[in-house]
Design goal:
single chain; 254 residues; alpha/beta; Spore Coat Polysaccharide Biosynthesis Protein SpsA, Chain A; seven-stranded mixed sheet; globular
């Protein structure tokens, strides 16, 4: 018997992509569940998906006070309730065809499978350089704390087993970087180091419609995930960018 799978897709004002994404996944994977985790969009994405009348495709609108990309994804993992979950973006930079390789690895016994980009330089030089630098720093932080890591830790395309990760997410919810973007980092950070980790390689695509939401606060939250020294770097970067660090992390204010 093959395992059931939910594709978890965080969205915020993705009405230009959302229907095409739902149709593309359904055409290639008739039995997959599709769960769009909507972070209080102001567009008509939910209405468009509801209009498809697909019982396996849902939009979950999150509470306004709980906004955050990572929180959307992590909550999606918990409520998916299928054997596996796979996270991907809604802009087609993660090709739908890449889902098959991740699903196959999970079916063959992997606890977590990371979609690994063949050529990260396709991101453009500055984004590639930033991604490379963060990958090195975050990997070193994980290894220093006795955790596993992977060669593309910044990847937003990955899948895992619900029975392993849902309990860990619920247990560590308040400690996770819920307003950040690097969900995979927290999965490595809070999971058992003995898990079976696999990779599935793919070619990173170009965004179909809309604009990227990456900004300086994404950098701050990424640093913040890396324990003490990472938080020090996050404070220095926030000061450099004239961002109030303690408005983001009020509990750290002395």
């Amino acid at each position: 018997m093959t395992g059931t799978c939910t594709i978890v897709i965080p969205t915020y004002n993705e009405e230009k992509n959302i229907v095409n994404m739902a149709k593309a996944i359904r055409a290639s994977y008739p039995d997959f569940h599709i769960l769009f985790m909507d972070d209080n969009s102001t567009d008509n994405g939910k209405e468009l998906i509801d209009g498809l009348n697909d019982p396996l495709t849902k939009v979950f609108v999150r509470k306004p006070e709980e906004r955050g990309l990572a929180a959307s994804v992590l909550q999606g993992f918990v409520i998916s309730e299928t054997d596996y979950f796979i996270c991907m973006d809604c802009d087609f930079q993660h090709p739908v065809s890449a889902l098959a390789g991740i699903y196959e690895k999970l079916e063959n016994g992997a606890d977590l499978c990371v979609g690994t980009r063949n050529n990260r330089k396709a991101l453009g030089f500055y984004r590639w350089a930033g991604s490379w630098a963060f990958n090195v720093f975050c990997s070193a932080s994980l290894k220093l704390h006795g955790k596993q890591t992977t060669s593309d830790l910044m990847s937003g395309l990955f899948g895992g087993r619900h029975d392993i990760f849902a309990p860990e997410i619920e247990k560590n919810w308040n400690s996770m970087e819920l307003t950040g973007w690097k969900v995979l980092m927290d999965l490595f950070k809070y999971s058992d180091k003995r898990l079976k980790i696999e990779k599935s390689f793919y070619d990173f695509g170009t965004r179909a419609e809309g604009e990227s939401h990456i900004n300086s606060k994404v950098v701050i939250t990424s640093w913040h995930q890396c324990w003490g020294f990472g938080k020090w770097c996050a404070r220095r970067f926030a000061k450099l960018k004239h961002i109030d660090y303690y408005s983001m992390y009020p509990k750290e204010k002395k």
